[in-house]
Specification:
Chain A: It comes from Roseibium aggregatum (strain ATCC 25650 / DSM 13394 / JCM 20685 / NBRC 16684 / NCIMB 2208 / IAM 12614 / B1). The complex is a heterodimer of chains A (204) and B (223). Chain A has 204 residues and is α/β, with parallel strands linked by helices. Chain A has one domain (14-203): Rossmann fold. Chain A contains five helices and six strands. Chain A has helices at residues 25-32, 73-83, 99-105, 121-134, 151-166; strands spanning 14-18, 58-61, 139-143, 170-174, 184-188, 200-203. Chain A has a six-stranded mixed β-sheet, sandwiched between helices. The two termini of chain A are 25 Å apart. The relative contact order of chain A is 0.24. Chain B has one domain. The longest helix of chain B is centred in the middle third of the chain and has 30 residues, at 91-120. Chain B is elongated and about 55 Å long. With 223 residues, chain B is an all-alpha fold. In chain B, helix 8 (160-186) runs antiparallel to helix 9. Chain B has helices at 3-17, 23-41, 45-68, 70-77, 80-86, 91-120, 125-152, 160-186, 193-221. The chains are: A alpha/beta (204), B mainly alpha (223). Chains A and B meet through helix 2 of A and helix 1 and helix 5 of B.
Chain lengths: 204, 223
């Protein structure tokens, strides 16, 4: 799938993965999330918890929201808070929000007792995002995080992402929109040249 | 029980009793299968009471299979399964908890309905008690074996039928010992305890092999 792909990310930095459709941005994120086994190569996390793989330090915020329509908004979020194991490392210390506080912060506090099936696409997206706030984990893997969000929520998402970086977290995101993140590196994926396949790794 | 397991158990139980859940469907299907048999067989009460335990067992097997295809598929479709794989919880234990919740929601109602349906089949109180007891210890094995099929067919859109074909051969030993234990309670000279203990053993074996095999299949299906 990938050839000559290599990058490293110090704490507090975001990696923005760009490239044409179908180039493998999502596959890269899914590989980092441990959902696709690596055919070769290594993935290493420094100062992590020893008996956990890197994927278990990460939140995956993908195209699917993992929200159950039959459960209420609070039940959805409380489940993820209770189920996902929190991870804090020496470099990353963030306080977990309570589900109510996270929903209020994201502007869907008034929907707390509604079945999640009643939410709009953007609200469901925000509920999925709230999952990242109730369990602290140092790595956020975000695939098109701004999809279905309006301008205001997009700004709020940026604030949250910048807050995560400031707390010493890492973000790897695949996106088509320009995100004004404080500390960014760009990884541009492109199709391999038949002669000399290579990757560009440009610091922004 | 550690807290994440309790959280997962409560969520799965809630989902199965809410709209779109499978809790009530299974027991209604069980009712339909068992009530149709006397119409087909005819009003021969002796015959009915002789084949009654077998009918209840086959009905329970079919009703269990009915809801199993959604065990992991519903979670895969909305991305929940991906997050569960990353949650840092042992996958085998996760499968076991999900099976337990699924059994409480769909298997336990079958056990509770069995004495009532026994009346339809002219079972005497001893036979009814025996069938109910064998269903109580045997249906968890059906759910746990079915979980293997559910995990293998998780990525198939219409995997329900394939699941039934995969699971029924594996469920035959459970069926044999369940029915023979119930029959043994009715016909005096045969000891009840021997097939019953083998049935218990089958459930315990399924509780180990089912989660291990289903977890392996789910990891493989992640790609």
């Amino acid at each position: 799938m990938f050839q000559d792909l290599s990058f490293e990310l110090p704490s507090g930095t975001a990696l923005v993965v760009t490239g044409a459709n179908g180039i493998g941005k999502s596959s890269l994120l899914r590989s980092l999330a441990g959902l696709v086994a690596l055919a070769g190569g290594t993935l290493r996390l420094e100062d992590g918890i020893d008996d956990r793989v890197p994927a278990e330090h990460a939140h995956y915020f993908g195209h699917q929201n993992a929200v159950k329509a039959a459960l209420s908004v609070l039940e959805n979020l409380s489940f993820w808070q209770g189920f996902t194991s929190p991870v804090t490392t020496p470099a990353y210390r963030a306080a977990a929000l309570s589900p109510e506080a996270a929903l209020d912060l994201l502007g869907i506090g008034h929907t707390i007792d509604l079945p999640a099936g009643f939410l709009s696409a953007g609200q469901t997206r925000r509920l999925a995002l709230a999952r990242l706030l109730v369990t602290p984990r140092p790595i956020w893997l975000m695939d098109e995080p701004t999809s279905a969000l309006d301008k205001a929520s997009e700004g709020q998402l940026l604030e949250l992402m910048n807050g995560h970086l400031a707390a010493g977290g890492l973000i790897v995101t695949a996106t088509h929109t320009d995100l004004a993140l404080v500390n960014t590196r760009i990884l541009h994926l492109r199709t391999a040249d038949p002669v000399s396949p290579h990757e560009e790794d440009l610091p922004a | 029980m550690s807290s994440w397991a309790a959280v997962l158990f409560r969520r799965d139980l809630r989902l199965s009793v809410r709209v779109g859940g499978s809790a009530l469907v299974g027991v209604l299907f069980f009712l339909a299968v068992v009530t149709v048999i006397p119409f087909g067989v005819g009003p021969d009460l002796n015959l009915l009471s002789r084949i009654g335990p077998a009918i209840l067992w086959i009905g329970a097997l079919l009703a269990t299979l009915l809801g199993l295809d959604r065990l992991f598929q519903a979670d895969r479709e909305d991305g929940t399964l991906d997050l569960m794989l990353m949650a840092g919880r042992p996958l085998e234990l996760l499968v076991l908890i999900k099976c337990l919740a699924h059994w409480v929601a769909t298997g336990l109602p079958l056990v509770i309905a069995a004495p009532l349906l026994g009346i339809f089949l002219n079972l005497d109180p001893v036979a009814t008690g025996a069938v109910t007891l064998t269903l109580l210890v045997g249906t968890p094995a059906l759910t746990l074996i079915g979980a293997i099929g559910a995990a293998l067919t998780v990525s198939l859109r219409r995997g329900g039928l394939l699941l039934a074909v995969l699971v029924i051969p594996l469920a035959i030993p459970v069926l044999i010992f369940g029915v023979s234990a119930a029959d043994a309670a009715i016909h005096d000279p045969v000891p009840f305890l021997t097939p019953f203990l083998i049935l218990c053993a089958l459930s315990l074996i399924a509780a180990v092999i089912g989660p291990l095999a289903a977890a392996a299949a789910l990891r493989f299906a992640g790609d």
